[in-house]
Write a structure and sequence with these properties.
Rossmann fold, 12 strands, hydrolase activity, acting on glycosyl bonds, Class_I_gatase-like, peptidase activity, DJ-1/PfpI, glycosidase
């Protein structure tokens, strides 16, 4: 392996460009860049450069504001894991709900913790956010899709071409918002028929991204879901993300 002093200037320039692009590219491409870097330079140099890239990566969503829409019965880990990952990436995260006060999380069919609502959906506007996350849980999206204000809130993100990430039963609300026609998605398997009937192409994959719309099947898919959601939020608006 060549010494750091022998790494071609052009290669270092490429690394610098990668570092500058981390905020836009997100975690997945960042990880690929690190793997490439490890093959090019000595361990010590790699570690130093990786540290700088990690710092920039942790700020990939700096200045972004991401809404989490949920109500009673949301699958707790499908809120807390993306919440922490997106917050760690530098974004401001806001819990939006048709309820005020607190909402009840669940671990499958058992009650878990309660969470403070930051903003009523009745007072929320998609214009004030850069992206949206829809956690699953059976009761949560089933309640949201009967709330006209919540459905309109979701639909507005698509009207404004902003990225949306939905996991497990979360895509149920997308069906009600009529935003999945001609889109490729995944979900908890029992939603397949509803999504196909709404015009979507359903696939059984851990994480699917279609022009700013990120979907995953279940909590086991959360690592890929979080990575891809952050990447799409960092990239910003997608012209094909629309109604």
């Amino acid at each position: 392996m060549p010494a750091a002093s022998h790494v071609p200037t052009a290669e270092w320039s490429r690394l610098v460009r990668l570092a500058r692009d981390v905020r836009r590219l997100g975690f997945l491409k960042f990880s690929a860049g690190i793997r490439w870097l490890r093959c090019q330079v000595p361990d010590q140099t790699t570690n130093n450069f990786e540290g700088k890239l990690s710092l920039m990566n942790s700020q990939s969503l700096q200045g972004k504001r991401i809404a989490f829409l949920a109500t009673d019965g949301f699958e707790q880990v499908e809120l807390t894991k993306p919440w922490q990952a997106i917050q760690d990436a530098g974004a401001e995260v806001v819990l939006v709900s048709p309820k005020t006060g607190q909402i009840q999380g669940v671990n499958h069919d058992e009650k878990a913790d309660k969470f403070d609502v930051d903003l009523s959906v009745h007072d929320a506007s998609a214009e004030d956010f850069d992206g949206l996350v829809l956690p699953g849980g059976v009761m949560n999206p089933d309640a949201l899709r009967t709330c006209d204000v919540s459905v309109s809130f979701v639909r507005d993100f698509f009207k404004q071409h902003k990225p949306v990430a939905a996991i497990c039963h979360g895509p149920w609300t997308l069906v009600e918002a009529d935003v999945v026609r001609d889109r490729t998605v995944t979900s908890w398997p029992s939603l397949k028929t509803d999504l196909v009937n709404a015009g979507a192409q359903w696939v059984d994959e851990e994480c699917v991204c279609d022009q700013g719309l990120v979907t995953s099947r279940n909590p086991d898919d959360l690592p890929a879901f979080c990575d891809k959601a952050i990447e799409e939020f960092a990239e910003g608006k997608h012209a094909a993300q629309t109604v």
